[in-house]
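User: For my dataset I need records formatted as: sequence, then C-alpha cells, nothing else. Please produce one.
Assistant:
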Amino acid sequence: MAGMEKTSKNPVNITEFIDSILKDQAMQKWWMIRHGSLDEFLVNLDKPVKIYGASKGGQYVKNILEKKGAKIFCFVDSDPAKWGGKLDQLPVLSPGELCQGDVVAISSMYQNEIVPVIKDSGLYAIITYDDFLNDIRLFNRDFVVKNKGVFEEYNRFLADADSREILLNLVYFYLTRDPFSTRISPYVQYSHPEVKANSGDKIFDVGAFNGDSIELFMNDSNNNCSIYAFEPSAANCEEISALVKKKGWQDKINIIQKAVGDVTGTTLLELDQFSPQYNKTGQHKGLEVPLLSIDYFVKTTGIVPDLIKVDVEGYDEKVVRGAMESIAYYKPKLQIALYHHPDHFINIPQLIRKANPGYRFYLGHHRGGCWDTVLYAFE
C-alpha cells in the first residue's frame, strides 16, 4: 500500500503514529495533510480540475467545484465510447491522457474500480468522492487530530489485529486522502465471521433498502431465519416485497414500512435525487413517515432480536439510542454503520459499551475511501 509500508504492524501508540504522519515531509504530497479540507485546498489551487466520471455524478461534482471557485478543464472516463465526446461543453478524455501533476476529482462512489486505473499516473492531487458529501467529507485531518485520544481508545478495545489494522488505515486515509492505501476487509459487508446471521436468528434489518441485505442474511442462515425489514420508503418496500415473493420467503420476511429512531412518532424522509439507497430520515423537508424505536417495537411485540443491522444514512446514532434497553438486556449481535458522520464513529461505540460493557468489537471496512465502515459487536 503506497505510503503505508511502515505501518504493516499496528503501532503501540496511535497518537505517535498520527504525529509521525503529520511531521513526515514525504506526506506533504497529499493535499489533505497540507490543507485539512477541500475548501482550503481549492482556495490555494492554481490549476483547473479534471473530473473522473462523465456522468450525472460528474455534473454534480462539477457544479460543486464551480460554486467553490474552481475551474474545470475536462471530464475523464473509463468508457471508450465516451472518449472524444463532450459533456457540459467540456471534452471527455481517456485515463491514458492524465498526466503527473494533474488535479483529479473522482465523481463516483465506485472508487475501488477507478483508483487502479489511475494508480500508475503519478497523481497525488486526487479529490475523492467523499469530499463532495456533506457529512462524510468531515472525516478529515482535523477530525483525526481533534480525536487522537478516541482513536487510541479504539486501538485498545478492538478485539483483533485485523480490526486494528483497518482502524490504522482509516486514520491514514482521513489524514492524507491517499486513495491507494485503503484496506478492504476480507469478508462481505454484514457477514463478519463472528457477527453474522445464523440459523434460527431473529434479525432486525434497519434500513433494508431494496432487500440486498435480506438476501445476504438468508444465505448466511441457510434460509432459516426471521427478518423484520424496517424501511420507510414505499418504493423500496415494493422492491422488497417483489424479492420476497420471487424467492418464496413470505413466511420468513416481515416488511415494516416505518423509520426507526430514538422515539416513537413521525419524522420526515428526504428522497435522494440520484438513488433511493441514500434516502435520509430525520430531515427538515420531505415526506412525513411513521417513526418508532427498537425498544418500543420489542416491548409492544415481544419479538427479541438476535441480530440488529443498522444502515440508515445518518440516523444511525438515533437508532442505537432507541435500542439501548434491548442491547443491555438481550445482548443481540450488532452490525452498525459508522461512516455517515464523524460523530457516529465516536459516539456509537461509547453508547454500546455503556449499555453493555461485555461486548467484543470488530471494525470492518468494505469500500474505498470513507464509505462502508461497520462496527460489529457481540457478547
